[in-house]
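Ticket #4471: structure export looks truncated?
Reporter: QA, pipeline team
Priority: medium

Steps to reproduce: submit the single chain below to the structure queue and open the exported record.
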Amino acid sequence: MLAAAQSSSSSGIYLILAVIIVAVLLLRWRRKKNRRLQEAETQRLASERLRNRIFLCTYLGGSESTALAEDSEYWVRFGLSSMDISDLHTRLIGSCPIDSVLDVQVSGRGQYTSGGGFIGGGFGSVGSIATGMVFSHILNDLTTRTHMDTLMFIQTDRGSFYFGTEQLSPRELIIKLAPFTEAMRRRKTRKEVN
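Actual output as written to the record:
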């Protein structure tokens, strides 16, 4: 009788564990589905902006900080004749002709992952598999995040600006800015020749 009661209570625990695991997996699936829909819309808008070399950036500071608030987001547009900074409502805050842009540098560590790191275990083959390893896997999935760290330094004849963006890796941003930096170089060469 005692063995039947122990067997019944341990199967009850496994049933509860199974229900919890299924609930967590359903919650994770729903969050991923919503995140994918949001990312698809964000990606569509971002690809449209990237074609026009418009980047969502966070202003980190610089020598000319009167018009821009630190740790605030702005749209930075690199055209072939100027660099423009707009607020999130696309109201133009400032424009700098390409002749006034002295240097653009891109750096940062690019894509990296944070969170996770849970290790699970238990006693016996059932305990270690059913509880510790499964829960550590679920916790790792829920807490692991991927980030992008890209910094952009812009030097103009009026001052310097430091921006951060999570849209592109440093390599991708350098490639996207190539038409702007090439136009800068050509104008600088023409000035030196004249």
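Status: closed, not a bug. The export was complete when the record was re-opened. Leaving a note from the reviewer for reference: Residues 6 and 112 are 47 Å apart (CA to CA).
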